[in-house]
């Protein structure tokens, strides 16, 4: 099963010192096909990771071996199963209704939702393009619209945004 991990870290000088070990740990897991994707923002004080694990206990084991966790730098940790997020279409269509217009600004079209699901499944832009028999550029344009509608800027933020959470601080 795939899991989304969202974490916030203390504003601590140890973050910078431990960053190489943190990255090496997750890079090793990426090569083992455990880490499927991720990204950081707010100067490295927040991150979202997409991992493959048997269960939540295994996810917590992965987190426990991370140098940031061992140094107790995580302030807030959220672990969510991706199947929980995308189990039903109405859950995945996390619309923020807008007044008027054929398609509200926060709502993904059915096709955009299919593209978003493929992104969450770990497919590359080229693989998505091949599936729909379109150019990779067409897929990039769909992804740009998805990001704009959900007010995100990275693939790693997609699952949380579909869940209706805001990733960036106000």
UniProtKB/TrEMBL annotation:
A Pfam entry, by short name: GerE
Origin superkingdom: Bacteria
Domain HTH luxR-type per the UniProt entry, residue ranges: 101-166
Protease recorded as keyword: no
Listed InterPro entries: Dimeric_a/b-barrel, Sig_transdc_resp-reg_C-effctor, Tscrpt_reg_LuxR_C, WH-like_DNA-bd_sf
PROSITE patterns (alphabetical): HTH_LUXR_2
The keyword Transcription regulation is annotated on this UniProt entry: yes
CDD domains associated with the record: LuxR_C_like
GO molecular function (one): DNA binding
Protein name (Swiss-Prot/TrEMBL): HTH luxR-type domain-containing protein
Species this protein is from: Streptomyces humidus
């Amino acid at each position: 099963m795939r899991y989304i991990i969202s974490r916030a870290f203390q504003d601590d000088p140890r973050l910078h010192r431990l960053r190489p070990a943190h990255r090496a740990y997750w890079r090793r897991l990426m090569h083992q096909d455990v880490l499927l994707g991720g990204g950081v923002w707010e100067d490295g004080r927040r991150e979202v990771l997409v991992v493959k694990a048997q269960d939540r206990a295994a996810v917590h084991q992965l987190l426990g071996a991370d140098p940031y966790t061992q140094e107790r730098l995580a302030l807030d940790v959220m672990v969510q199963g991706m199947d929980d997020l995308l189990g039903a279409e109405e859950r995945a269509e996390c619309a923020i209704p807008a007044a008027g217009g054929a398609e509200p600004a926060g709502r993904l079209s059915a096709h955009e939702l299919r593209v978003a699901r493929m992104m969450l499944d770990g497919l590359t832009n080229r693989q998505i393009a091949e599936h729909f028999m379109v150019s990779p550029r067409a897929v990039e344009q769909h992804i740009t619209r998805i990001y704009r509608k959900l007010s995100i800027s990275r693939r790693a933020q997609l699952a949380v945004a579909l869940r209706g959470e805001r990733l960036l601080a106000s």
